[in-house]
Amino acid sequence: MNNTVIWNIIRFFVLLALQGLFLKRISDGWVTGSLYINVFLYPLFILLLPLQTPRTGVLLLSFLMGIGVDLFYDSPGVHAAALTAMGYARALFLSLYEPREGYKLNDKPTPAGLGMNWFMKYSASLMVLHLLVYFSVDAFSPIYILGILLRTFFTFVSSMAAVLIFVFIFMPKR
Amino acid sequence: MRGLLQLFAAYGNFLLFGFLELLALILVVSFNQRQGAIWDNSWGMATAALDQSADWLGEQWALRDELIKLQGENIRLMEQLDNARYSNAVRQDTFLKDSTEQLFSYIPANVISNSTIGTANYLRLDKGSNHGVRPNMGVVSSDGIVGVVRAVTPHYSQVMSLLHRETRIKAALSNSGYFGTLTWNGKNARLMQLEAIPKHAVVAEGDTVVTSGYSQLFPYGLPVGTIKSFDFSGGGNFYNIQVMLRNDLNKLRYVYVIENEMWKEHKELDEAVNE
Q: What are the domain boundaries of chain B?
């Protein structure tokens, strides 16, 4: 149990640093100067929190993570608003996708723990929600709805790819 | 305190979520130039719209005051008309200007419910016994007669509309003075029937029908409508006259309740006759 806490703390800082120092530069056009791809990997921290995490804790951690990313992106509140919404929705989607026999004590919200099918549904739903809220708050006006939807779609593809790569590298199936 | 704790136990996470989102959005509009500009702009538009609706409301109130003033002026004018005054003159040469007394006075009222469907229609007015309305008072609008008060409460009164199968109001032809009884057959909200005009009266389409003044409800000469058509079907000695109402009871808003200042004397006489 203690081990899990430590691992999550480490994951918090690794994902925060990865997002703020590395992935941000991709969206800024680091490679060629014209490559505008958003890759959001940091929501994975909320996705991978243990199933028993109290909802209050999830909310506070997602706000904290969002503010942390905002510090790097120089956009106070935008990532925090989106990730807090996702953190609140996590419990709803967890109960929506609950397996017939319920969650077991040792279940982990990973492909290895609950199956690839389950993880795809779970992570895709929450990622779409997160990106929708993020780009809505970023645009801050309903007149940009087409731009919001397009950005959500493209960022969803690249971010989900990053999430799956990360999960398979660091949490391979035993 | 205990209730507050229970509230937090039940909705704590949702409240925390709302609080964090609010915090995030405050950060967004405070420290991001673009979002801040959009926010300021929208907020400005919202307050401007609010200002505008407040102005509009103010104007409505001003109009209300104006309306009440105008109703009061109308009443003063109507009460000075000949048909609203009782004349003490017995011979032409004794006529003096101050030999008349107030016979009819008016109480302004607003219609708050109305119906013209069915055969027994009622209106409700926003004035009642507190304002001097009593049962059996006539009700008119600026276009003509409307009905008769049937019941009152301190603040409201119930008026039997002209469009009621039991309506019996004396009405006269304004050019010849022959009088009959106005009834309603329940079919058309603009058409009433004038009965008991004798066959020897001269009647033409377009003739004006007015109140006869033979009741204590309405003064003489208030407009009712014009004759639309007439015939002798049924073979009696009386005309069947269709009267087109001047008043459209479908769109009634402001009315006046007529008070007969001498109703007590009429009552005494009625009782004296009945004894």
A: 2-62, 107-275
For residue B40, the chain A residue with the least C-alpha distance is A140
Q: Is the pLDDT of residue B88 over 80?
A: no
Which residues in chain A have their CB less than 8 angstroms from residue B13's CB?
55-56, 59, 88
A51-56, long-range: CB < 8 A, 24+ apart: A51/A94, A51/A103, A51/A107, A51/A108, A51/A109, A55/A88, A55/A91, A55/B13, A56/B12, A56/B13, A56/B16
Chain A residue numbers with beta carbons less than 8 Å from the beta carbon of B22 are none
Superfamily (CATH) of domain B107-275 = Rod shape-determining protein MreC, domain 1 (2.40.10.340)
Rounded CA-CA distance B74/B86 in Å is 19
Probe site for chain A from B20, B35, B40 (most A CB atoms < 10 A): B20
Task: Check: pTM over 0.90? Answer yes or no.
Answer: no
**Position B106: which residue type?**
Y
CB under 8 Å to B226, separation ≥6 — which residues? B206, B207, B208, B209, B243, B244, B246
Mutant choice from A55, A58, A59 vs B, greatest count of B C-beta within 10 A: A59
Q: Is B263 within 8 Å of chain A by CB?
A: no
ipTM for the predicted complex: 0.86
